[in-house]
């Protein structure tokens, strides 16, 4: 198949660095004489033919911006036969030869189903603050989200120390403890609660009381949203220790903002690699980084549940308290 036109979309939750990935896909494809069509609002845009050609200038000045110029959405309609069939009609009508899908596990699952049914060549670029794509080390945006959350935790540390309080800080991660673990470690936090490990609140509270007797005055406990709610944990800690506790939910602040150098560099490298993949005729693949090298893996592998291997970092948080 001659590769004349690529359609690029961002789907699922936005992640800082998505724009850098779009820029890379567009500019590299154009340099290889391939046209690029931007598909707006993820799969919804493919279903509803909300598309626009992208040129060199369409991606100027976006490398430093969070979010995505293509907009994004979670699209339930794409899970239906009707939705997929309409998306395929857009692909045919607009002569799109292949898709580059920038997103997380849900977006890749959609891409895989679509590929199986209609055989539309596609390559995925992993972008999600959750770092939950199997087979690779890190997704675009995770590093930025960690640094954003870390900044907030450093600020919370000041007031926690000054007012001698316990803080429970809830970070994003519906089924992944990646952000929680990284910020708990880098922020010198006293404890971390993640979906991958069972919570032992009694033992945590016992540690707090013991520490308090030794003169320890403040704590920060980081909790991943998928493991527990900060409000519940804070209430239980107060009940079990009689110490004053506050909770903070960082929420969507973690999803926005300037991408870090790492998120941008990763995005630029993967955008280039995705186009190269299609040029080589490889399809239903995902490009990613592993052991500091760009790799190509099957879409089928990428959508399997990731085993985060949390032990090392989890134990470090506990032992360094
Ligand atoms: O994109 C991943 C993520 O930020 C998760 O960490 C979080 O649980 C979810 O998205 C929130 O999604 P929404 O913005 O649709 O509420």
Structure in words:
- By secondary structure, the protein is α/β, with parallel strands linked by helices.
- It folds into 2 domains: 5-141 and 259-302, 3-Layer(aba) Sandwich (Rossmann fold); 145-255, Phosphofructokinase domain (Rossmann fold), CATH 3.40.50.
- 42% of the residues lie in helices and 18% in strands.
- It has 11 helices and 11 strands.
- It has helices at 18-31, 43-47, 81-93, 105-118, 142-163, 178-186, 201-213, 230-241, 261-279, 299-302, 311-319, and strands spanning 5-10, 35-39, 51-54, 98-103, 122-126, 166-171, 191-193, 219-224, 245-249, 285-290, 293-298.
- The chain has a 7-stranded mixed sheet, with helices on both faces. The chain has a 4-stranded parallel sheet with strand order 7-8-6-9, with helices on both faces.
- A hairpin with a 2-residue loop joins strand 10 and strand 11 (293-298).
- Helix 5 (142-163) packs across helix 6 (178-186).
- The longest helix has 22 residues, at 142-163.
- The protein is elongated, with a radius of gyration of 22 Å.
- The model has no long low-confidence stretch (mean pLDDT 97).
- 6-O-phosphono-beta-D-fructofuranose (F6P) binds next to loops.
- 6-O-phosphono-beta-D-fructofuranose (F6P) is lined by residues 12-13, 74, 104, 128-130, 172-174, 225, 255.
């Amino acid at each position: 198949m001659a590769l004349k036109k690529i359609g690029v979309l961002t789907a699922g939750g936005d992640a800082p660095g998505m724009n850098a990935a779009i820029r890379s896909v567009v500019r590299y494809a154009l340099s290889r004489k391939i046209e690029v069509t931007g598909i707006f609002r993820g799969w919804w845009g493919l279903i509803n033919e909300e598309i626009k050609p992208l040129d060199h200038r369409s991606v100027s000045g976006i490398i430093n911006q969070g979010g995505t110029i293509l907009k994004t959405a979670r699209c339930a309609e794409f899970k239906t036969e009707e939705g997929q069939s309409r998306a395929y009609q857009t692909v045919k009508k607009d002569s799109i030869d292949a898709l580059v899908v920038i997103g997380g596990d849900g977006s890749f699952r959609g891409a895989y189903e679509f590929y199986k049914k209609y055989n539309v060549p596609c390559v995925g670029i992993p972008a999600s603050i959750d770092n939950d794509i199997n087979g690779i080390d890190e997704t675009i945006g995770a590093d930025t989200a960690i640094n954003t959350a870390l900044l907030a935790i450093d600020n919370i540390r000041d007031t926690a120390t000054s007012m001698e309080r316990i803080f429970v800080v809830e970070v994003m991660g519906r089924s992944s403890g990646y952000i929680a673990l990284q910020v708990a470690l880098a922020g010198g936090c006293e404890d971390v609660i993640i979906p991958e490990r069972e919570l032992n609140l009694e033992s945590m509270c016992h540690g707090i009381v013991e520490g308090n007797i030794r003169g320890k005055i403040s704590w920060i406990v980081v909790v991943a949203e998928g493991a527990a709610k900060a409000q519940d944990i804070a209430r239980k800690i107060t009940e079990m220790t009689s110490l004053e506790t506050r909770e903070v939910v960082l929420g969507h602040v973690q999803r926005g903002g300037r991408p870090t150098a790492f998120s941008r560099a990763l995005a630029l490298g993967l955008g280039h690699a995705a186009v190269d993949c299609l040029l080589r005729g490889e399809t239903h693949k995902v490009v990613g980084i592993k052991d500091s090298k760009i790799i190509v893996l099957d879409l089928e592998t990428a959508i399997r549940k990731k085993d985060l291997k949390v032990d090392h970092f989890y134990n470090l948080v506990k032992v360094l308290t």
